[in-house]
Design goal:
mainly alpha, 79% helix
Length: 386
């Protein structure tokens, strides 16, 4: 529960760490576009297969982004070769993003080749950074053993079709995600403030996509669309609250307090892995709310209805798992809210879309109201050091 988040030991002195650089923010603008493209892919392929393909694309892009988050964290600078590499990588990342709408179709090879360059440039930059550091060179070598074969499989997927293409995608994601887990975190280095801030900003970027979806889904501003837009922004605000009220601060605090070995594992598990389902939940909700605003008076089909409630449920589940990894216990109110949303998802097809969105907003905002009341004292201690 939330009161378990209260620190049990004195704050450690703040390290002298760099903040997120202007170059990293500039780089993330391309990733903003990539997230928008994934949500658009799902909107134009509103099938269960389309959902699976959209999540596969997001998983690939996410690990591409996390690689550069770790690179910037390790380098601690945006000067010299790091600047050249990050600016250079924005080109192929943009091309890969442009190819997202047809990443499993006519632009599959373009996506694969462009994404291979994104990953190869990341490894090259890491190798340059590690040229005088044997321990870091070992880290780069372990990363290259899985990153490059996984990216190569996506190139191969682009040259194939049908089942063979799908199998290449499955193998690529398994190698990429499994390799990071099995390779261990020996000699990994984490600067907590920068690393936590970079991931806070990416959650803001993803939430921005839900706002864009509200605008894109809104047509003629009648009473239904206005009401739907207000309900949508209420859900987005609730998602923001659940992460930024106390979770973000406590996550950085725990990362800072851990020793170097535990810190690297926590950074990998809590940020590189568990932030993915948070982002995925937001993207799925964005698809659902965009469809809702386009059809406020109609009944939603099965997938948009599932996305509207299920996206928020996935986000809350990921946040609860995030707490479990960092603190040692799940967040029970958020699990209850996620279960309520899961029950709502199939029922949402039997009611007007606007009513379904209103119920999702009621669950999300009700959760915030309950936690604010139930954990008022703990929130005060965490947020203001009372």
């Amino acid at each position: 529960m939330l009161d378990e988040l209260t620190p049990t030991q004195p704050e450690l002195a703040l390290d002298a760490e760099q903040g997120v650089t202007a170059l990293e923010l500039f780089f993330d603008l391309v990733f903003v576009f990539a997230i928008t493209q994934v949500a658009g892919f799902l909107y134009h392929h509103p099938t269960w297969l389309g959902l699976i393909e959209a999540l596969a694309i997001l998983m690939a892009l996410w690990f591409g982004w996390t690689g550069y988050a770790w690179l910037g964290n390790t380098a601690g600078t945006d000067e010299g070769a790091i600047r050249v590499v990050m600016l250079g990588a924005m080109g192929p990342l943009l091309i890969a993003s442009l190819a997202v709408p047809h990443a499993f179709g006519e632009d599959a090879l373009v996506f694969g080749v462009a994404f291979f360059f994104v990953r190869a440039m990341h490894i090259t930059a890491y190798a340059v950074l590690a040229r005088d550091d044997p321990a870091l060179r070992g880290v780069v070598l372990r990363l290259a053993r899985t990153i490059l074969p996984a990216a190569g499989l996506l190139v191969l997927a682009g040259a194939l079709s049908g089942t063979a293409r799908a199998l290449c995608w499955v193998a690529a994601l398994a190698i990429d995600y499994g390799g990071l887990l099995l390779g261990g975190t020996e000699n990994w280095r984490v600067k907590p403030a920068h690393f936590a801030e970079r991931h806070r900003l990416i959650i803001i970027i993803a939430l921005g996509e839900s706002i864009v979806a509200l605008g894109a889904g809104a047509g003629h501003l009648d009473a239904g669309v206005v009401t739907g837009a207000l309900l949508g922004i209420a859900v987005a605000a609730a998602l923001w609250w659940t992460y930024f009220d106390v979770v973000a601060a406590v996550a950085e605090r725990k990362l800072r307090q851990a020793d170097s070995i535990a810190r690297a594992r926590m950074a990998r598990d809590s940020f590189s892995y568990l932030h993915l389902p948070m982002v995925a939940g937001i993207v799925i909700f964005a698809f659902g709310v965009k469809t809702t605003l386009a059809h406020v008076h109609a009944h939603l089909d099965t997938l948009p209805a599932a996305a509207l409630a299920g996206g928020v449920a996935l986000y809350l589940l990921a946040l609860s798992a995030f707490k479990r990894r960092n603190i040692g216990s799940f967040n029970q109110p958020r699990l209850v809210a996620a279960a309520a949303l899961a029950i709502l998802a199939p029922a949402a097809t039997e009611m007007p879309a606007l009513i379904a969105l209103a119920l999702v907003a009621a669950v999300a905002c009700g959760l915030i109201a309950y936690e604010t009341w139930r954990y008022a004292e703990a929130r005060e201690r965490i947020r203001h050091g009372g």
